[in-house]
Structures are given as C-alpha cells and as structure tokens.
Design goal:
alpha/beta, Rossmann fold, Glutathione S-transferase Yfyf (Class Pi), Chain A, domain 2, six-stranded mixed β-sheet, 9 helices, 36% helix, globular
Length: 357
Amino acid sequence: MTLHRLTLAQFRSWPRLELDLDARPVALYGPNGSGKTNVLEAVSMLSPGRGMRGAAPGDQARQGVGAGWRIRARIGEHQVETTALPGARREVVLDDKPSPQVTLGKLMRVIWLTPAMDRVWTEAPEGRRRFLDRITLSFHPDHAEATLAYDKAMRERNRLLREQITDPGWYRALETQMGEAGGRITRNRLAAIDAIMAAQDDGIGFPAARLRLLPGEGFSDDPNGADIAGRLEAMRPRDIAAGRSLTGPHRADLGASWGAEDMPAALSSTGEQKALLLSLILANARALTDQPVVLLLDEVAAHLDAGRRAALYDQVTSLGAQSLLTGTGAELFADLGDRARRLSVRREAGASKAEDV
C-alpha cells in the first residue's frame, strides 16, 4: 500500500474530505456532478504537473480564483502537502520542507484514464504525445526535467525565428541544448514503449497494442542528440520562414495498431479504442511492479461490455497497485464483490459528501 491517507480542503466541490485508505480498490459512485472525479483529480495532484484535468490552480478552488485549496497525504512514510493560495503558484511541501514538484514523481507513480482520453487515437498528435509522455514519466521521473529544458530552449529559438534572425551564432547553443534534451526525451519515450509492449497480455480480455514512435518529419527514432541538433540546423531556413520550429521531438506522434490485420487504433470501433487504452494503462501499472503505483480510472465502465468490465476488475485487483474507480451507479461495480471498498458520493447545498456503503 502506498497512499495511506488523503485530506482535501476547499478543493473543487469538497469543502473537506478525509479518507484513510487500505490496499483494496475504492469504487466511488454517485450521480454526475456529485464530485467523484474531483477526488481522483486531487490524487493526481500528488504527481508532477497539472493533474488529470490539466487545470490551472485557480480553477480548482471551491470558492473560485480568489480562494485557495490544500491537499494533504501520507505516502509511504512521508507527509506531503500541496497547496495553491490566491495568486500564487502551486507549492509542494515534503516532510515539512519545500520541494519541487518533480519530487512527487519519485514517491509514487500515478496513472490515470479519463473519458477525455477516449479520443486519444483520433485527436491531433499533441494529445498522443501527452499520453506517451505521461506514461514515460511513470518510468523516468527525470523526463519532466528533459521536457522543460527542451521547451525552454525551443521558446528562445522560436523568438529568434519570429524576429527573423539569420546569424547562425545565435542558434547554435540553443540547438545544441534542444539536441541534448531532445535525445533524452526520445530515449525515454522509446524505453517506455518497450516496457509497455513487454508488459501487455492479450489473454486478459483486452487486445495488446503494437506501439511505435513516429518521430516527426525529417527525423529518425535515433535518440542521438547531435543528430537532432544537426537536423534543427538543416531545417533552420524553413523554420525562419515559418517563424517557429516545425520539426523536432515536440512534433513526434504515437502510432498504435492491434490484431492479426494490424488494425490502426484510429480506425477501430469506439469499444476497441477504449479496450486498447485500458490494455496500455494496465500494462503501464504491470510494468511498474517495483514501484509504488496508484491507478485512477474515471468512469471506467463506459463503452465496456459486462465481460470486459469483469475482466478489468480482475486485473485491477491482481495488479498490486492501489486503485480508485468512479461510476454513476453501484451496479457497475457488482463484479468487484467484496474485493473493493465502496463510497457513495452525493452533493448537498453545493458541497460534496461521501459515505461508506
């Protein structure tokens, strides 16, 4: 067990919530808008970044942008607090000491699946990159640092491109930085894909996906920083004309297919697309057996037939990861039997409340 206790104050619809957790999956059910997903989002804020909804801290406060919120948790032997006060950035305190957000990624790995992610196979490549990078971060907590370094150098390079600077001396250092960080990003992504592919099991009721990194126009999947920097230099005239960096690891894509006919995920049915996502999420958790993992599955029963729903619950209970699931009705979790803890969630006078069932 990883996450022992969770306390929320003024987060989304919850004026207050205190949960003591054990190793059992937690099934939260109640009407839409009752606040179930807000609990999962709070847990996702115990990882680096903006959490499963990608929301700004000011939008997460129960009383609006002029208020703040606080999340406290006991993770293993550590006490963690993350807060967002009015007009301030989100802060993290670990064992009473201010800490960077990246520290959270080393305490536990938080993996999530939300209804919005159902569109990942049909939306623009940016969504698939976010999906891949979130998986990659679970294996390589330093992936966030590489991404930040790459983005910082690219923003400065883009500024030069917009200003139509042509002197190569202005670009070399930035392109070298992008090459070094981009090489780390690509190596991390490829390693994550290999780990996911090795951990999939198509005998559990969900299809195994074949994944590949599509590195973008003009690039190979060779994670050599010098090659990336050289390609950026070669593409510089076109980038100057466009006023932005048109190629690089920031334009990569994730390809996925499945089955004997190598069916592209984008051309599969809605049900199979959901099943592929679940296959990857379960493989992600399965591949992290040596790490503390919390799995967040929001409205997970959507698009699953009864057989696959039962298969999912069997997997959830056998993974060894802590799991929190949401659904609109208790009947959706019947196949969990007595293996799970159930919380009924309701909303009264604008505030969310929960009780064990």
